[in-house]
Amino acid sequence: MRKTIVLLLVAVMLLMASNLNAVEPFNAFWKSRQLRQEEAQKWLAGFRKLNLRIPMLSPEEQLWLKTEIDDEIARAGNQYTKRALAAMNSREFDLRIAKPHAEEITRVLSELSRPTLSDRRLEVILWAQLASILMDNEFWQAIDDLVQRGIIEKKINGVESNYSFTYTLWAKFIVDKIVVSYLTGNLDK
């Protein structure tokens, strides 16, 4: 039993280490506005690609989701029913979750990539918004599902698995190295 636990811990540590190699924040991009802008541009390219690969829902699909989930839950007194839960396990639901998030990530990274962004406070707000989106587990679950369904590519900005874990690490670096540094007066010092 003890040997199994040790082997399991070693496997988890190896998995974490392999994912850390794909985590770009280890390149100290937070040290200057120029480096942050360059990093945002790199991330933007990957998330633009992701966003373009996530299809838009058709009006029929939107209506189906409204009927099967929103209306069904409302009819049941704001309780999840088997019917609503079954619809939430669909390609359409994954797209409903993933597309707006990918669009928002792309929007924020586009703003952070602008060479004319000179307001440090606004820049930090944008980084904080990005961190918040990157920590959304429901989004990454939808992405996992869309990868499994073969709708989008597995590799997203160099990350091929454990998206939620990896991008939560990215978000942690953003909060620790940019937001907290700004709040303590240490950004770009």
Structure overview:
- This protein has 189 residues and is an all-alpha fold.
- It has a domain at 31-54 and 98-183.
- It is built from eight helices and no strands.
- The termini are far apart.
- 25% of the residues are buried.
Give me some keywords for this one.
189 residues, 8 helices, mainly alpha, elongated
List the helices and strands and how they pair.
Blueprint: H1 2-21, H2 33-53, H3 59-75, H4 82-87, H5 91-113, H6 120-134, H7 137-148, H8 163-183
Helix pairs in contact: 2-5, 5-6, 5-7, 6-8
Pattern of helices and strands: HHHHHHHH
Mean pLDDT: 87
Helix content: over 70%
Structural class: mainly alpha
User: Based on DSSP secondary structure assignment, what is the total number of beta strands?
Assistant: 0
Annotation field: number of helices: 8
Low-confidence stretches: 6-25
Short description:
With 189 residues, this protein is mainly alpha-helical. The protein has a domain at 31-54 and 98-183.
